[in-house]
């Protein structure tokens, strides 16, 4: 067994827990997890996830900044997507999935291009929503985590697969925690009708 599997999975799990509690420390822990996971995915030939980890590293820096300062120099509040935003993101997700699969099939020897490409594209979208503190990220993470658990198990990464099953639980937990924070943050807002 490769030591990177349990150690990288452990850091990823702790990082995700901190995300569910909306704590900025998650971004730093995520950077450590990413470095470990990049090496592991390279060794296992999971190239879409490898590229995804590199993008995650950049997003960790961006997310840390956004959660700390945002455009208004205040901590970014949690929010929901509008229906218009959701329908605008659907074609972007489909295009991302298609492009990821095509790239993996054309430029790698991946034997899991469809699953790897789908999880890569949806993970990028979920990570972007996470950086912006949009609660819908947890719904996407639930889908991604189920698919990733299967992919990791198929590739023999038992610790990472187990972690992704735990991520399913954390995604649900994260959604409800963020919803509670959202309600508390917006409790004192009065609306004029």
State the shape.
globular
Radius of gyration: 17 Å
> What's the average pLDDT?
89
Helix content percent band: over 70%
- Terminal CA distance reads 62 Å
Q: Main beta sheet, described?
A: none
* Uncertain stretches: none
Q: How many separate domains?
A: 1
β-sheet strand percentage: under 5%
Q: Please trace the helix and strand order, writing H or E for each element.
A: HHHHHHH
Q: Total strand count, please?
A: 0
Structural class: mainly alpha
How many helix segments?
7
What's this model, at a glance?
This protein is mainly α. It has helices spanning 4-20, 25-44, 47-68, 83-107, 113-131, 137-154, 158-185.
Verbal overview:
This protein is mostly helical and 193 residues long. It has one domain. The chain contains 7 helices and no strands. It has helices at 4-20, 25-44, 47-68, 83-107, 113-131, 137-154, 158-185. The radius of gyration is 17 Å and the shape is globular. 38% of the residues are buried. The model has no long low-confidence stretch (mean pLDDT 89).
